[in-house]
Every structure is written in structure tokens, then in C-alpha cells.
Write a structure and sequence with these properties.
This protein is α+β, with helices and mostly antiparallel strands. The chain is built from 15 helices and 10 strands. It is 53% helix and 18% strand. Helix 2 packs across helix 12 and helix 12 runs antiparallel to helix 14.
């Protein structure tokens, strides 16, 4: 069916002719529609991938890839447990922690917080808190000195700065009763951090692990945080590492800790991709309309070709060639444009902002000062293949109608 003659004729029909301006115009609109649709899908999904990576990085800046716990009980032999974990596949760091729900107060200001006890020497192995310090150093958390480091938003809410004192209030059981009475402990602010995520900056405070044990009256941390060289494979690697521990500990990875965030992002990406693919679908319908008009316009030509010996399959190939050419050129243009935009967002956006005089993300309002972009080859290939298949499918009905043309009927009044 797809021989040189049908392909040659199909290519000739694809070239705009002066007497068929309207058909040629619709052809160009269809081609550009496919190109714009493919480019939009690639660009938008790349930007959403960038936001997802940015969010994941900020969530994990103070959270580990996985945690090991004993169901809320203290892990008294945590040093031995960390030694058992050494040599685990992909493991790059392990550090103890002890979280406590507390109320921080200063004069008339109060705010709820999570007070996390850490080992300043080991914690940089599992978090990037050192890079997030705006004032002070992580090493300032000396044991027994009741020092504390606050998130920037938490410090702002309490009107605290380095050198100020804050009262940490926790609940504890009263001796010989079931009542809860508050425990009050005064701490000195020695540092402020900012990671750019409200869930951390507005609720998290860091103290030395030994101070946290004294505050909670526990003889060890509540868990061990782990970090791996590949965050995407961390869930499986964490479970492999946990098998080295005797007795075992409970494992919880970052996908479980932040499941709601990433489920929402996946749903949003899926829906956005489907919505943007409607642009391609509209362009595909234009291809159908274009070919239908071409078939009606070329009925006499089809009849002549049939009388010269061209088979119905050859006629089918003529119009499939024309439709596929329109769709594939549009897809190729969209692929090139989409990759150009998605790979150069960091250059294009600042240029548009400086030219038009506005900020897409105002640094004074948002933690982001640019639009991140991350292009995944698998998504690009999938989008391209789907667009190509849609354009092929769009040619089938008009081409079948052309193949059914009867020469005698078409030439009756010629």
C-alpha cells in the first residue's frame, strides 16, 4: 500500500496550493495546534517536576530519608545500633533524634513547637541543617547548657533573637497520680535556621540530645534517622538496612511521612497532563477536518487515479501520508519547542521578568525566586509517542472515506 506513488501524491497534496487557501490555512492551524499542545505538555510537566523536586529537597532538608524507632520507647543502645547499620547498601549517614511536643513562651507570646533533640556531631550526616543556619552554628548546642536553635518563623512569632531566653513547657505525669502537670525549662537561643518550608521554619526547634533526654526524662533517643545516596530508592534500602538490626526496629520512610504532599502532586500532574493533552486532541480534530475537506476537494483526482490503476489501498495511503505528515511535523516542532523552553526556564523567565517588569515569584513573598524545571526523558518520550499515535488515528476515517470513492460516481458530471 505504502509505495512511492501514493506517498508522492500524498506529499504533493500536503504542499499549499494557491487555489486552496482555506484548506491550506486549516492545515497550518492543525500543524501549529499539535506543536503548541506538545510543547505545552512537555514544558508544564517539566516545571511541575521541578517543583516536586524542590519540595522534596526542602522536606528532606531536616527530615531523614527513613527513621527507625522502637514504638515510642527509648533506644538505649543507639550507638550499637548505628554500628550494626554500618556497611548497609547505599547508607551515607545515621543519627539519633528525640522529638517532643512542647509549648514555647516568652513574656506574653506563646507558640506550639516540636522540640527535637539531636547530636550536633552526627546530625549533619542526615540533614542539611548546617547550610540552613542564618545565625549561630549547630555546634553551639553543647550538652547540659540548655541551648536552643529556632526556625525563623518560630523566632519571629515569639519575637526572639540570638541571646534571648525562651521557656519550653512540656507535659509530664505527676508522681503518684494520673494527672499531667507542666514541666518548665528555660533555654537560651543560640541560633536561627531557615529552610524555606513553613512546616519546618514555624514549628521546629533544635536542642542537644542530652538536654532532650533530660526534658523528656528518657534514657535514650526515640529513633534513628537514616540517609541514603539515592532518595528515590531509600524506602527499599531502609528496609534492607533494618534487617541487620537485632532485635529489629520499626521502619518508616520519607514517602510515608510526606505521603499526602506527593500524592497531591501526582494527582495534579496527571490531571494537568490530561487537560493539556486536550490541546493536542483539538489539533487532531482539525487534522480530521482538514483531510475531510481535502478528500471532498480531490474527489475528481481520486477518480482519475483509480482509473489509472491506483488501488483503494493506494488511495488510503495517499491521505494517510498527508495527515501523518501534518501531525508528525507538528509533533517534531512541539518536541523541539518544549525541550527548548523546559531546559532554559532559568534563562527565559528572568528575561521575561526584566522585559515586562514584574516578578512571577516575588522573593519578598515566596521562598522561591525562580521557576524550577526538571525534564524527564521517559515523560517526553511518552508525550511524543501519544501525539504521534493520535495523529495517525486521526487520518484513518478520512482516508477510508477517500478509498471508498467510486470513479464512475465522481466523474459522472465532469
Amino acid at each position: 500500500m505504502f509505495q512511492p506513488v501514493p506517498i508522492f501524491v500524498g506529499l504533493r497534496y500536503s504542499v499549499p496550493r494557491g487555489h486552496g487557501f482555506f484548506v491550506s490555512f486549516i492545515t497550518w492551524v492543525s500543524l501549529l495546534g499539535v506543536a503548541v499542545g506538545v510543547a505545552a505538555v512537555i514544558t508544564v510537566l517539566s516545571v511541575m517536576n521541578g517543583f516536586e523536586s524542590e519540595l522534596r529537597g526542602r522536606l528532606l532538608s531536616l527530615s531523614a530519608h527513613a527513621t527507625l524507632s522502637a514504638g515510642g520507647a527509648a533506644i538505649t543502645d543507639w550507638q550499637q545500633r548505628i554500628k550494626q547499620l554500618q556497611g548497609s547498601s547505599g547508607l551515607t549517614g545515621a543519627a539519633p533524634f528525640l522529638d517532643t511536643d512542647a509549648m514555647l513562651s516568652r513574656e506574653s507570646s506563646m507558640s506550639g513547637a516540636i522540640v527535637r533533640g539531636i547530636d550536633p556531631a552526627l546530625d549533619p550526616q542526615v540533614s542539611s541543617i548546617g547550610d540552613a543556619m542564618r545565625e549561630g552554628k549547630l555546634s553551639d548546642l553543647k550538652p547540659g547548657l540548655n541551648r536552643i536553635i529556632l526556625g525563623r518563623m518560630l523566632a519571629y512569632q515569639l519575637q526572639l533573637g540570638v541571646g534571648d531566653s525562651v521557656v519550653v513547657m512540656t507535659s509530664g505525669g505527676a508522681a503518684g497520680s494520673d494527672r499531667f502537670v507542666p514541666r518548665l525549662q528555660q533555654f537560651e537561643v543560640v541560633g536561627i535556621f531557615e529552610v524555606g518550608l513553613q512546616e519546618h521554619d514555624s514549628v521546629l526547634a533544635l536542642i542537644n540530645l542530652s538536654d532532650a533526654e533530660a526534658l523528656r526524662r528518657m534514657q535514650g533517643p526515640s529513633g534513628i534517622r537514616l540517609k541514603f545516596d539515592d532518595v528515590l530508592n531509600a524506602p527499599g534500602l531502609a528496609r534492607l538496612a533494618a534487617q541487620r538490626l537485632k532485635p529489629p526496629l520499626q521502619v518508616r520512610d520519607w514517602t510515608q511521612e510526606n505521603e499526602a504532599y506527593f500524592r497531591a502532586i501526582r494527582i495534579e500532574k496527571t490531571m494537568m497532563g490530561l487537560i493539556l493533552m486536550l490541546i493536542v486532541a483539538v489539533a487532531v480534530f482539525n487534522i480530521v477536518a482538514t483531510l475531510v475537506m481535502v478528500v471532498n476537494d480531490k474527489r475528481t483526482d481520486i477518480a482519475i487515479l483509480r482509473t489509472l490503476g491506483l488501488s483503494p489501498g493506494g488511495v488510503l495511503a495517499v491521505f494517510m501520508t498527508q495527515g501523518v505528515l501534518i501531525g508528525w511535523i507538528g509533533t517534531a516542532l512541539g518536541l523541539g519547542l518544549g525541550l527548548t523552553l523546559s531546559l532554559n526556564v532559568d534563562v527565559i523567565v528572568p528575561f521575561l521578568e526584566s522585559t515586562l517588569g514584574f516578578h512571577i515569584f516575588d522573593p519578598g513573598v515566596f521562598y522561591l525566586n525562580g521557576i524550577p524545571s526538571e525534564t524527564h526523558a521517559g515523560e517526553v518520550v511518552f508525550i511524543t509517542v501519544v501525539a504521534l499515535l493520535l495523529t495517525v488515528v486521526a487520518t484513518i476515517y478520512p482516508a477510508l472515506q477517500a478509498a471508498k470513492t467510486q470513479p464512475a460516481e465522481a466523474l459522472r458530471y465532469e
